[in-house]
Write a structure and sequence with these properties.
Elements lengths: L9 H23 L15 H22 L8 H21 L4 H14 L18
Helix pairs in contact: 1-3, 2-3, 2-4, 3-4
Keywords: Membrane, Transmembrane, Transmembrane helix
Protein name: Transmembrane protein
Organism: Chthoniobacter flavus Ellin428
Length: 134
């Protein structure tokens, strides 16, 4: 077979998607979060809901990032990339709507994963070497 051609639209599209999700997250957290309407209940950090949402966020965002690092430079790499950005956005929204008392914690996790998904930090797996002649 021939050498695989690099996909030239991949990095700019990834940057546009990253900027879109980042801007949407910043605007929604700015305009939707209301600290004056915090619930009277404060959940313990060991509450099953807090632990479950934290583990779900770490496993989905981290799993998609791991999957993305195993992809070769093709258009198929956009699937784990966009899924990872979407799950990172969900993580930020947990702190706005589901657990407002853990707003900063959820935002911190989202910021870490947004930096992990920045297109220039994404490295693709190198193509397999051609088979040796017999």
């Amino acid at each position: 077979m021939g050498k695989q051609k690099p996909v030239s639209f991949l990095r700019p599209f990834m940057l546009l998607a990253w900027l879109f999700f980042d801007l949407i997250t910043v605007l929604e957290t700015h305009y939707c979060y209301r600290p004056d309407s915090l619930p009277k209940r404060i959940l313990s950090p060991w509450h099953p809901l807090v632990i479950g949402l934290t583990l779900f966020a770490l496993l989905t965002c981290g799993g998609c990032r791991f999957w993305l690092s195993r992809m070769r430079k093709t258009g198929w790499a956009l699937i784990p990339y966009l899924l990872g950005l979407m799950f990172t956005w969900f993580t930020a929204m947990y702190g706005v709507f589901v657990l407002p008392e853990y707003f900063l914690f959820c935002q911190g996790i989202a910021v870490v994963f947004f930096f992990a998904y920045f297109p220039f930090f994404v490295r693709f797996k190198q193509p397999a070497p051609p088979p040796l002649p017999v």
